[in-house]
Amino acid sequence: MTTVPKTKIAFTTLGCRVNQYDGQAMKEQVERASFQTVPFDEAADIYVINTCTVTAAADAEGRLLVRRAKAKNPGSFVVVTGCLAQDRPQEVAALAGVDLVVGNDKKSRLLPEILKSHPSLGEDPSSSPDLPSTPWGGGITRFDGHQRATVKVQDGCNFGCSFCLIPRVRGEMVSRPGLEIVEEGKRLARNGVKELVLAGIQLSSYGRDWGLKAGEPRLAPVIEKLLVLPGIRRVRLSSYAVADFEDALLPLWQTGLGLCAHLHLPLQSGDEEVLKAMRRPYSLDHYRRTVEKTRKAAPQVGLTSDIIAGFPGESDKAFENTLELIRESGFLDFHPFPYSDRPGTPGEALKPKVPSAVIRERMDRLWELKRECLAQSAQRASGRKYRVIVERHGGGQQAGLTDEGLRVVFPEREGWLGKEALVAVTGAGPGGASADWA
Fold it and tell me: Looking at the predicted structure, is the pLDDT value of residue 421 above 90?
């Protein structure tokens, strides 16, 4: 009996946790149809590049991956999907080597789109699984390459920040039904996942599209159901905005039942005028009050953030205001980003532009302050013991993330990946804290 070789499909994903989730959902979609998925650096019949367009650097990386795919197998069929594909489909389609462009709105029907455009597969598109177009893409059962699994609970954004084109590529915000989230949590737990990371583009607004008010419990009841699932040790929130902050989350951080006391609260700028020009949906006073009430309810909460350097019109004084607010907020860690114009956004037309050399200088100062924040966080944690999910790190080391969001690195032990370990922090280390097995 002759066995027909399975079509090999390789996936790679750039960008945020939501896009990483989409990549996993697409991979499982084609596997359910009996296609074989292989690593992206291997020879494949089809390559799927799930792009990001949050920065110019992300755009460039997406184009580079197209060239790499064709170099690996010149005869391959290359599919580009994701945010860059959604925003500028004609530009992407014109790239040498691109055979098919699939926008975010069609990710959940990736396989039928491929079959329709790639008749040499010999498959009848009408015989492919019935795949409704949803933001959740049929769901996931695992999260390849990660020991903590991301669960997408919301998509889209209504904020309209002047530097961002995400509302254009992700559409209006939509929340995932709580029952679907819990069922996915069960599937992941059955496959050994112990920590869930809830992610969304506008996560703090979960449930607002159903008419629920900001002050009403929305995501908290879903988290409570996830925390009692057999096998789930903890739940963590991904990036969370000040706008529509859900006060019902505060008691969950106090109980110690498994909602990680880690809040990633993007600031972007610590200057009021820059914040207004960014069209962020909060004031600095609003941000400070949110931090204050969170720390009052749960003093142990680790606060992390995002900062943009060099937004148009950002003066030296405005940048100093940002540095001051970072220190005032006591961030455990933060992620600095250099500003880059995004096509068609209001920020593209704003003047004056900050010179590239100045942006690089400000980024250097932010990286220096980031290292200071991490060193101080590690010092405060020194001598304490933490339970973490063991992840890969390399160089004979493994790593984990404390409930508060501090990355700890410790000596590798075979057979511990994905398991919960008890470690003791010994001091500061590269990118976080050093630790030993307790």
Answer: yes
Provide the residue count of the chain: 438
pLDDT band at 128 (very low <50, low <70, confident <90, very high): low
**Torsions phi, psi for 355 (to 5 deg):** -55, 145
Top-level CATH class of 145-260? alpha beta
Tell the CATH topology of 269-278+286-377.
Transcription Regulator spoIIAA (3.30.750)
Domain range summary for the chain, segments of one domain joined by +? 8-127, 145-260, 269-278+286-377, 385-437
Looking at the chain, the whole-number percentage of residues with pLDDT higher than 90 is 89
Nearest CA to 424 among 411, 415, 413, 416? 411
Q: Is the pLDDT of residue 346 over 60?
A: yes
**Average pLDDT of the residues of the chain:** 94
The crossing angle, in degrees rounded to 10, of helices 316-329 and 356-381 is 10
Q: What's the pLDDT at 140?
A: 97
pLDDT-based confidence at residue 1 (cuts at 50, 70, 90): very low
Instruction: Classify residue 141 by its DSSP letter.
Output: S
| Interval 306-327 mean pLDDT | 98
Q: How far is CA 310 from CA 176, 261, 337, 347, 373, in A?
A: 35, 31, 9, 12, 21
Contact 418, 424 (CB under 8 A): no
Same topology, domains 145-260 and 269-278+286-377? Answer is yes
Q: How far apart are CA 405 and CA 433, in angstroms?
A: 11
State in words which class domain 385-437 has: mainly beta
Task: Tell me the two tokens of residue 236.
Answer: 């963590």
Helix, strand, coil percent content, the chain, rounded in steps of 5: 40, 20, 40
How far apart are the C-alpha atoms of 438 and 45, rounded to whole Å? 47
